[in-house]
Specification:
This protein has 267 residues and is mainly alpha-helical. The chain is built from eight helices and no strands. Helix 3 packs antiparallel against helix 6 and helix 6 (175-203) runs antiparallel to helix 8 (243-265).
Length: 267
């Protein structure tokens, strides 16, 4: 549940900030609200369609590559989370300027008002697609529906609340710390999801296990213990991992850390 809540929190927060910037920058433009709301509604509807067909594809592959499909979903979710982390690190500051530039173009009449709808639509769809993929990957990894639902609700409420607080300037000074903390949480989450996806592919005999398990630390720290569960949620800890899973985890982690460092130095 916590994994889902964190990812949803981050994605909803990003949507809130994008919508907040557009709303603030176009506050004097008549009828701009309906286009922004229309973009949000369209983006949510498109993500629901994506969720529906993801389940249909999964059911159609029963018995003919379910492990392959499950592994692919997990790796896709990891890729999208990783890409978002790196993209936001590099473009967070310029994003605000670009959105304000679009808003000014609409205000001046050089761009039609419905431009706002498309900007919001694609922003909401991109973030919602990540939520759909991550939620589905959690489901196929064993999370039950009640945990997923609680995570979605908690993440949506918290993300919307923090987004609103940032918009109204309530926590403007400390807002950056939310992104720093959640960025590093997502780095480890993405690495753990990659390892889980590789586990499915090992079971499908697509890739070699490189030792299975490569170690057994269950007697020292069980994955099912309270602290083991905490590390599993936030760090991707597995007490009996295959060698290929460990390798994939640290490759993913190294790429993200290097990417964040490069992005930070290039600003």
């Amino acid at each position: 549940m916590l994994q889902i809540a964190i990812v949803v929190f981050r994605e909803i927060l990003e949507i809130s900030l994008i919508v907040g910037i557009l709303t603030a920058a176009t506050k004097n433009i008549p009828h701009r609200t309906k286009w922004i709301i229309g973009g949000m509604a369209s983006g949510i509807a498109a993500s629901l369609i994506l969720a529906f067909f993801t389940d249909q594809i999964s059911e159609s592959l029963d018995g003919v590559g379910q492990e392959i499909f499950n592994g692919s979903i997990l790796l896709s979710a990891s890729f999208m989370i990783s890409w978002t982390v790196l993209w936001m690190q590099k473009h967070a500051k310029s994003l605000s300027g670009e959105l304000k530039k679009i808003s000014n173009s609409v205000r001046e009449g050089s761009k039609p008002l419905y431009t706002l709808l498309f900007v919001v639509f694609f922003s909401v769809l991109r973030e919602s697609a990540e939520i759909v993929l991550f939620t589905y990957s959690s489901y196929i990894s064993g999370s039950n529906i009640s945990q997923i639902s609680l995570g979605l609700i908690a993440g949506t409420i918290c993300g919307s609340a923090i987004g609103a607080a940032l918009y109204f300037g309530i926590i403007k000074a400390s807002g950056k710390y939310f992104f720093i903390i959640t960025t590093w949480i997502l780095v480890f989450l993405a690495s753990g999801i990659t390892a889980s996806g590789i586990g499915f592919w090992i079971n499908a005999d697509i890739i070699p296990s490189l030792g299975n398990p490569i170690w057994d630390s269950s007697m020292i720290l069980s994955q099912l213990s309270p602290f083991g569960t905490f590390l599993n949620i936030f760090m991707g800890y597995v007490d009996q991992p295959a060698g290929a899973q460990v390798l994939a985890y640290f490759i993913n982690l190294s790429i993200l850390i290097a990417g964040l460092k490069i992005s930070k130095n290039s600003k």
